[in-house]
Amino acid sequence: MKKKNLFLFMLLLLSSYYDMDAQDVSPVKIPFETALNTTKELVLSQIAADVKIVPLETTENCLLSKVKAGAIQMIGHDIYIPCDMGLLQFSDDGKFIRSVSRKGQGPGEYANIRYVAVDRVQKQIHLLTNGKVLVFSSEGKSLREARFPMVWQLELLGQDTYVSYVYNGNGKKREKIILSNMKGEQINTFPQYDQFTVPSGMMFYNTDPYDRYLYQFAGNTCLKEFYNDTVFTVKKDKLIPRYIFDMGKYRLPDKYRFEVLDGNWERFNEVSAPYWRPNMVETTRSVFVPYSPWKFEDRIKGRKLVVYDKKGKSSYNVKGGYIKNDMNSRLPFYPNIQATDDVVINLWEVTDILELAKKDPALLEHKALQNLKEDDNPVLIIVTMKK
Question: Average pLDDT for residues 247-275, to the nearest whole number?
Fold first, then answer.
């Protein structure tokens, strides 16, 4: 009898553990400030299961410019890259496949691309444009469209709900998150408590092509803002704290926000200099925190990286700002595009590779990099992380 009772107790305990709501789990603290006190080299073989160097095909039909890098998505072996030309589909060996629909005002056409989300189960692409969402198959076939509010980005919550993010560019937006069904009909909202004053009352945007405010990981839809130190898991009825970035002295004070300074770039660049702008890429083993200066012109050359080890619950600053490639080339890796749960992409402009090769000519010895030309499409490093 005692053994039976013990078995029942353990069964109930396990059941309560696996049914436990995320609200019962304390958010994980990422000590960004103290991480900068510990710097060490990180090499790809420590974290990567596979690495591919992929030059993207360059033809008149697939010239990439003004890439929305944060919205790059993958379904299976296909990569979807939103850019000024449209939504271009490539294979993971760099071959151009097609342009998904085209710009225009007709059915299945878009005026511009605000953001892209994908349903990897149903193999569908959800393209956010002005005032509507267009849905395509992974082969580019138009499936349906729905009217949609003017929002900044969107992601999927399960297969029946859109999560959209409202950028608070004037300090007066009432909603932070809007939940909608597949018809674009609003079903819930989460309020925007971060209110502030813009002297002119105008809308300002301090954004970056690599910004991703909403991301999916391990079946969760998550929210990461740049003025908020807390990352949330989004549920249909609540926002649950998931991570807290302890920025310490490196957090941008509210009074120095670009919007609060009324869009004064010169003043903003001056006062924001001592602070860092952290992005985030979550994988099974690690949380990568690519960070850079707030000054827009310095965000590429000023790239740096903090890594949080989930298992060891420790964080550190990566030497040189990049992960050393010791697996298949000398081209270093910067993990700032989350393609799937454990597939992370680094997009290299060819001009930057050629500039780097001036100091390290051996970098171009890799077969995929031997015939690069300055006007070629970018090169991707696609890394599958260890789990």
Answer: 98
